[in-house]
Each structure stands twice: as C-alpha cells, then as structure tokens.
Amino acid sequence: MADAPFLLEIDGLHKSFGDLEVLKGVSLRVRPREVIIVIGPSGSGKSTLLRCINRLEEPTRGVIRVDGIELSARGVDLNRARKDIGMVFQAFNLYPHLTALGNVALALRKVLRMSRQEAEARGRRMLERVGLADKASAYPGELSGGQQQRVAIARALALEPKLMLFDEPTSALDPELVGGVLRVMRDLRDEGMTMVVVTHEMSFARDGGDRVLFMDGGEVVEEGPPSTIFRNPAHQRTREFLQRVLHA
Amino acid sequence: MGRLAETFFNAEVIATYLPALLSGFRVTLELAAAVVTLGILLGLALAMLRAFRFRLLNGLIVAFVDVFRTLPQLVVMVFAYFGLPYAGITISAFAAAVLGLALVLAAFAEEAFWAAITAIPRGQWEAARSTGLSFGQALASVVMPQAVRIAIPLLTNRTIAITKGTALASVISVPEILDKAQSAMSISANASPLIVGAGLYLAIFGPFVVASRWLERRYGWII
Question: Residues with Cβ < 8 Å from A73, sequence gap 6 or more?
C-alpha cells in the first residue's frame, strides 16, 4: 500500500468516556509528507483524537487506517502497527531509570530485536539528529525539559515511523526552551515526515504546517491552509478562539 | 556482681556450648537466606502477575495475600509441620519453617510491589506501548525497574521483622540459635547460652539492617 494516496484515514471517529462524548464523528485524511496542526480550546477533543490514532485510547466507533492497515479493527497486531506511529507526549514520559541513549534504544532492542550494538549505534544517530549527541549517557533527571522532549522525539524517531503524533509537545516547557523543540520539528517536516501536531503554539501553527484543523466540542469546526484559518476564518467559533489566544 | 556474671556471662558454660550455638547460627543463616529469597521472589512474581489484571487470577492472588497477611507466621509454620502430615504430606521442620515465614513475607512483599506498580505514572506505560512494546515488555523493562526502587523502603522493615521470626522455628525443633540456646540453658541451668544467642542474632541481623539502610539510600529514590 506504499502508493496509497493517504497515509492516515479517519472516518466517523467517536469516543465517549461514560456519558461524556469527547469526539463526535471526526474524519480526517492525511497525505504522506503532510503536516497537520490541530488547534482548539482545552477539552475540545484534540488530544483524544491523537490518542485514538495509535489506540492509546480505544475508539468507541469509527475507522482508523494508517498506511492501509485498519488500526480500529479487532485482532489487529497493535504492537506491530505502533512501530510505524511515533508519539511525543506533553509530559515527555522519558524512562527515568534509563539514560538518554537507553530511552532511545529500548524499543529497538525489544521490538525490532536489534543487538545492543546495533540499537546503540542507531540510538546515537537519533540523538545526534535532535542535537543531543553529547547527552547520550545523561539521565532524564539531568536534562532540561527541552532536552528531555528532544530525547523523547529521538526515541519515537528511532523506530523509523511513517507518521509522527505530537501531543502538545511544548506545553510543559519554559518559554526559552520551546524554540529548540520546534526547531527539531521543523527539521522533521523539511525531511518529509508526516505529522499530526496538537499545539497551543500559534507561531508554529501559522508557519509549521500545511493544514490547520480547528476543533471545538468534539468536532472539526473548520480546516484549511494556515493562511486562511488565521487570516480569514469562516466560523464564528474559530474567530473567537483565535481572538482569545492571539490577543491574550 | 559475681553471681550476675556467673549466671549470664559464664565463660565455662559458654565454652562448652559454643559449638552447638554456632551450628544453630549456621541454621538460622540458612533459614533467613531461604525465607528472604523465596518470600521476595514469590511476592514479586505475584505482583507482576496481578498487573495483567486477569480477574479470576487476581481474585486468587488477593485472597492469598489477605490470608497470609492475617495468619501469624507461627500458625502457618506449625500447620505446615504438624498439620500437613494428616494429608499425607510430610516435610522437614526446616522446610516447614521456611514455608511458614516465606509465605507470610511473600504476602507483604506482593502488597509492597503492587503499591509500587500502581504508583508508576500512566505516561510511562503509554510511552512504552506507543513504541510497540507489549504489555509484558513494558512491565518488565519500564515499570518494574522503577517499581522495585519504590518498593524497597516499603519492603526492608517488613523483611527484617518477618525474617527475625526464624526464632519461631525453635517451636518445631529446627536446630537454630534459639533452639540450641534453650537446650543449653536447661542442661547447664545457666542463662549464658541465651546471651551468646542474642549476640549471634545481632551478628546476623545487624548487617542486615545496615544493608537495608544502604539499599534504601542507593535505590530508594522516588520519581
């Protein structure tokens, strides 16, 4: 399915937590090399959408296909499918008992069954890619938040995923550390990585992606190129949201 | 004064019974080593099994834990030695003592490891699973190394308290320190063997306590 027109297809995705309907029928098509930015107020379902894509959250209804593999199907080999979907979390979630290199190499050894040497060689290349070659033997507790997040990105990249999911990657960072993480994400985009990014970082939303999705109340209210969404939003709700975040 | 020394620190009595007491010392050491190893490993295995959340199995684990946290270790020991033969199962006094103490330690150790497992933030599981690790791999490579560190301060006191219970094995005539000291005491009509016995307990559990403090400092960090 390498020549499938879409790398990610979501159709009619619903997710409820008890009585609370968090996603009310979201559909999305993402082409290879496309970068999608998802914005919206908190509680709008952005993170849940992302977490349904690799099934950290179990969709209530709907179809999710990544590179032609239906992730939402019963009996799908999730562990295998997840190798192709990298995820970066707001809270980094690095393993505190392992070094930066250990964090990056773990899945290479356990999932790809590489030898220690192979895994560490690739791990070092990945750390180099995010500008942290010199921090290979540092533990997460010895790194700044920005460095931790870059290690987390390296950890996800190490499996050579086809799709990268970013769940508010800079929200937990001090302002002066945001730039380094965004730079890595821009490099990734320029290298042709397909990405879905949930973010509150409006500068990145404006110039970092090909398409912006505005979500509110569990629905995609509006989507389009960043220039349209930011300069000429079609919906009142989008206008109100942008007003709030841009002039806060 | 002289009488006191003669009763409690009688060199002649001590010299006579020292070989017997030292053989008891060896048995107590063996008991303690077996109890700690078996109890901790069984507790660890049960906590890891419990993490898989199979309903029936978890019911059994919780029942096991609650029963053996409740029963006095002496009751378990006596039951294993005097009770099991009625079911056609005969085990040595040494094995009964190890079994009694190890099962009780396993119950408490399971609770400590389980508390530690549930204290690991969900994000750790999610990070591991998002990179394709299976549940078991995430448990073994990401969660347990952290959980064990959290469990150490919860475990050390319990382990010392239960392992000291090796002295209870004297009740079922395991030839450990207290058993040797008591028989020496009644034959010699002198309390000196008990003083030596107490010294031997200190020699075993003193380093044990110091080692547990070191373990707590070295690995007992909280995330």
Answer: none
Interface contact flag, A97 B137, Cβ < 8 Å: no
Among partner residues B127, B132, B223, which is closest to A83 by beta-carbon distance? B132
| CA separation for the pair A69, A51 (Å, rounded) | 17
Q: How far apart are CA B77 and CA B93, in angstroms?
A: 9
Give the model's pLDDT for residue B1.
Answer: 58
Interatomic CA distance for residues B27 and B175, integer angstroms:
7
Measure the CA–CA gap between A138 and A154, rounded to whole angstroms. Answer: 14
What are B107-138's pLDDT values in tens digits?
Answer: 999 999 999 999 999 999 999 999 999 999 99
Asked if residue A53 lies in contact with residue A195, where contact means CB atoms within 8 angstroms, the answer is: no
ipTM above 0.85, yes or no: yes
Residue B220's pLDDT band (boundaries 50, 70, 90)? low
Chain B touched by A126 (CB under 8 Å)? no
Does any CB of chain A come closer than 8 Å to the CB of residue B119? no
Gyration radius of chain B over CA positions? 21
What DSSP character marks residue B80?
Answer: I
Euclidean distance between CA atoms A64 and A55, whole angstroms: 9
Give strand ranges (E) for chain A: 8-17, 20-30, 35-39, 61-66, 69-70, 85-88, 163-167, 194-198, 211-216, 219-224
Residue of A nearest to B222 (CA): A96
pLDDT, one tens digit per residue, over A193-232 is 999 999 999 999 999 999 999 999 999 999 999 999 999 9
Distance from CA of A24 to the nearest CA of B (A): 24
**Per-residue H/E/C for B129-149:** HHCCCCHHHHHHHHHHHHHHH
A89/B123 touch (CB, cutoff 8 Å), yes or no: yes
Inter-chain touch A156–B131, beta carbons under 8 Å: yes
* Distance in angstroms (rounded) separating the CA atoms of residues A72 and B127: 20
- pTM score: 0.90
**Nearest Cβ partner for A93 among B127, B137, B149:** B127
Decide if B133 and A83 are in contact by the 8 Å CB cutoff: no
